[in-house]
Structure formats: C-alpha cells, structure tokens
Amino acid sequence: MNNSKGLLIILSGPSGAGKDTVLKELLAHNDKVRVSISATTRQPRQGEENGRDYHFISREQFETLIQRDGVLEYAEYCGNFYGTPRAQVEAWLDEGLDVVLEIEVQGAKKVMAKCPEAVSVFILPPSFAVLEKRLRRRATDSEEAVQKRLAAARGEILQAVDYDYMVVNDALEDCVSDLEAVLQGEKCRSARAGNLIEEVLKNE
Predict the structure, then answer these.
(1) Counting runs of H as helices and runs of E as strands, what totals does the chain give?
(2) Structural domain span for residue 101
(3) Contact in structure between 117 and 178 (CB atoms under 8 Å)
(4) Alpha-carbon torsion 40, 81, 14, 181, what sign?
(5) What are phi and psi for residue 169, nearest 5 degrees?
(6) 3-state secondary structure (DSSP) of residue 37
(7) pLDDT in tens, 29-51
(8) For residue 168, how far is the Cα from the chain centroid?
(9) Residue 108 belongs to a domain with what CATH number?
(10) Is there a domain that residue 170 lies in?
C-alpha cells in the first residue's frame, strides 16, 4: 500500500553545488521520479531540443498560460519568459510519480507559497572554497563571471534556511542517499499517508 499521489519536490542550490549531477543520479535509481521541463519564450540554442531541454513557446502562448494560472512560477529574464508549466506536473503527481522542480531561490519561494505541500531541498557545497574550486574547474567562465556566480551563491546559501531540508553534496553517493531518505521519510508522514489507515481498516 502506498500513498497514491506523488511528491512535489523543489530542488535548489548555488551554481557549482552539483544539482544536475545529483538529479541525474537520483533519476538513474528511481523510475518513479520525473523532472519538470521549463517553458521559455526564447529561441532554441544550437543542440537544444523542444520537449527535452525546454518547451519553446511563443510569448503569446506564455502570456495565456499566466492568465489561466497555468504556470507554477515564472520570471522574465533578458526579455524572455521562463516558467514551470502546471499541467504536466499535476498530471505526473496524480499518477503517483514524484516530480522535481530544479529552480532558483526566487522561483522556489513562489512555488512554496502556491504549493505548501511541496518538499523543498537545498543542495549545499561542503564549503565555499570547494564551491569556488568547482566553478573554476569548469574553465568556461571569465573571472568576472566566476565572481558574479560566487556573489550570487553567498546570497542563495543564506536563504537555505527557508527550505525544509539542507543536503550537503560532498560525496555524490552520500548526497543522493540523503535525498532519497528525505523523500522516503516525507512519504511516511502521517499527514501524507492518512489514506493508509482507511485501506487497513476497510476490510475489518
């Protein structure tokens, strides 16, 4: 017997914390987990695929979604909208699948306010020095860009206290295990598993 509805999971963390790697590993070991794909009004970049990287839609379509409360959160950046479509997320949850929203802090807070049942998890680096080392290891950003990412990371880390859980990504395997433990623990909470009592007693 399992609680039929899936968990809505908000996953955030600073650039360099390893969110993508953690999420990839989580998906590899859990066939009941899905990742929400954001919608955007910007043009696809080389190598990007509609429905895999983003849902690429027109500005008019996005504005219609906003008017119909069809996005859980959205923001405008450099003249383009980015957001989380509601329909697919809710469909997966109704199927009993757990859905991860990998979003930045401001978007996460909007979802927390709109969906108080969501489970929020902040991925932390083991130290700020390690975070800086990871960012520099990428060798794709200029020094100015690295400093901007580090400054943004400081502000984001300070807001980790607003999340339900904080998980440190030092060793990948341990981080993924901690995240899985969070999800399993949430599913066993009485507030989420109340229907189990009815199932146990229905054939009394």
Answers:
(1) 8, 9
(2) 8-36+97-201
(3) no
(4) negative
(5) -100, 85
(6) coil
(7) 999 999 999 999 999 988 999 99
(8) 16
(9) 3.40.50.300
(10) yes
- Give the global pTM: 0.86
Pairing of strands 39-40, 80-85: antiparallel
Q: Is residue 104, in this structure, part of any structural domain at all? A: yes
Residue 13: closest CA among 140, 175, 121: 121
Residue 86's CB is within 10 A of a number of other CB atoms, namely 18
The 10s digit of each residue's pLDDT in 143-155 is: 888 898 899 999 9
Total domains present in the chain: 1
Enter the tokens of residue 11: 């996953």
Q: How big is the CA angle at 38 (ends 91 and 10), to the nearest 5 degrees?
A: 70
pLDDT, tens digit (0-9, with 9 covering 90-100), for 107-117: 999 999 999 99
Domain-embedded: residue 59: no
Q: What are the tokens at 148?
A: 């901007």
Q: Which amino acid, one-letter code, is at 16?
A: G
Q: Are the CB atoms for 146 and 15 separated by under 8 Å?
A: no
Place of tokens 């020095």: 129
Give domain status of residue 79, yes or no.
Answer: no
